[in-house]
Amino acid sequence: AQSVTQLDSQVPVFEEAPVELRCNYSSSVSVYLFWYVQYPNQGLQLLLKYLSGSTLVKGINGFEAEFNKSQTSFHLRKPSVHISDTAEYFCAVSNNFGNEKLTFGTGTRLTIIP
Amino acid sequence: DTGVSQDPRHKITKRGQNVTFRCDPISEHNRLYWYRQTLGQGPEFLTYFQNEAQLEKSRLLSDRFSAERPKGSFSTLEIQRTEQGDSAMYLCASSLSEGTHRELFFGEGSRLTVL
After folding, report:
1. Distance from the A100 Cα atom to the nearest Cα atom in chain B, whole angstroms
2. What pLDDT shows up at residue B43?
3. Which of A76, A95, A107, A111 is the most exposed place for a label (fewest CB within 10 A)?
4. 3-state secondary structure of A61
5. What is the pLDDT of residues B11-65, one digit of tens each?
6. Do A100 and B103 touch (CB under 8 A)?
């Protein structure tokens, strides 16, 4: 079984400041890792994914994440946030065989303060 | 093709009524997933299809829930005798089983409110 923990349910950040959203996972097998963003009343959009290779992954909208196998973490970062980054962010994990079924964390609501 | 589409976007119903949601995946995608998202939670897996075959069902999918994908294209999710606890956003996603992209493309969801 797999699980994802997003310890921070809400993160307020001033505009143009850096942000880090934390994600830890648990799995008995090798995994793929994902970050999705959800804007109000919309579905989920993929920000970035780690499948293999370089542990630093760059995604859309200036976001990046680093896979740390020893710490079982996949934290999401952005050096300078914008008002438009206000949204809910979900970390997710899938196993690296079979289907693409995802196990999601409970989400982190990012609020940008002008 | 503009992505995964879901219908209706919003549904308000009275307890005990039946509701049906439809999902049209991206046309070349052979896998289709249903998730449920309640307020303040992440999406939870319900079931998935490869072509017309339903390959996995979550224990969350009680016998009041049934999903179909009769021709391997669109899918329907029916909830019979709705309960207030069924109020949630129902998300559909699709993917390709070939290749290494391993990405789910989500629709905008169908929000169910049971009164």
Report:
1. 6
2. 94
3. A111
4. helix
5. 999 999 999 999 999 998 999 999 999 988 899 999 999 999 999 999 888 899 9
6. yes
- Sequence-distant (≥ 6) Cβ neighbours of residue B59 within 8 angstroms: none
In this complex, is the C-beta atom of B102 within 8 Å of any C-beta atom belonging to chain A? Answer: yes
Using DSSP, state whether A31 is helix, strand or coil.
strand
Tell whether A3 is within 8 A of chain B (Cβ). Answer: no
Nearest Cα of chain A lies from the Cα of B43 at a distance, in angstroms, of 6
Helix (H) or strand (E) run with residue B56 in it: strand B53-57
Q: Give the pLDDT band of residue B100 (cuts 50, 70, 90).
A: low
Instruction: Answer yes or no: are the C-beta atoms of A33 and A90 closer than 8 Å.
Output: no
pLDDT score at B65: 96
The CA distances from residue A79 to A17, A52, A62, B19, B107, in Å, are 7, 24, 8, 45, 29
3-state secondary structure of A84: helix
Chain A partners within 8 Å of B43 (Cβ): 44, 90, 102, 104
Query: Nearest CA of chain B to the CA of A52: how many Å?
Result: 10
Distance CA A37, CA A108 (A): 10
Per-residue pLDDT at B93: 95
